[in-house]
Amino acid sequence: MGIEQGLGVRWLAFAALGLVIVGNAVGNLLLKLGADTPAGRPLLFGLLPWQTVAGIGCFGFGILAYAWALKHFQLHAAQIVVSLQYVAAILLAALVLGEHVSPTKWLGIGLIAVGLFICTR
User: Fold this and answer.
1) 75-90 as b/e, with b when 16 or more CB fall inside 10 Å?
2) Are residues 44 and 50 in contact, defined by beta-carbon separation less than 8 angstroms?
3) I want to staple 51 with a disulfide (CB 3.0 to 4.6 A). Which of 15, 33, 110, 117 is the partner?
4) Is pLDDT at 50 greater than 90 in this prediction?
């Protein structure tokens, strides 16, 4: 494999890790929305709210992307990067669900981001 092909695959592997982060964060958001579905609302197959099924699908997609990305990264490095899913889930909770995130929690999120940055060096 040439250098250009190797760099292209590396970028795809980084994109796959990005999809893991997004898939897991959106999956969490959808599971929360499904859990908050009022009784009597239409359910998929009469069992689950569609949001719950879609959330499970997002997690499944994330697992597939992660499995592929692990072919190109060491486990410890990949795990550091996908830990950003926690920050992404909190941001989605604040932006989409209107959940209150206190200044202390924002400080903690910032410390997580700094820690992840340090771990990737």
Assistant:
1) eeebebbbebbbbbbb
2) yes
3) 33
4) no
CA torsion angle for 94, 106, 16, 9 (degrees, to 10)? 140
Count CA atoms within 13 Å of residue 99 on its CB side: 14
Q: What three-state secondary structure class fits 48?
A: strand
Task: Give the per-residue pLDDT at 36.
Answer: 87
Average pLDDT rounded to a whole number, residues 8-19: 89
Give the phi and the psi of residue 44 in degrees, each rounded to 5.
-75, 125
- State both tokens at 46: 């009469």
Task: Give the structural domain span for 61.
Answer: 3-120
How far is 79 from 35, CA to CA, in rounded Å? 28
Domain count across the chain: 1
> What is the H or E stretch that residue 94 is in?
helix 84-96
Both tokens of residue 1?
Answer: 């494999």
Do residues 62 and 70 touch, judged by C-beta distance below 8 A?
no
Mean pLDDT score, 95-109: 93
Lowest mean pLDDT among 37-41, 46-50, 76-80: 37-41
Kindly report the length of the chain.
Answer: 121
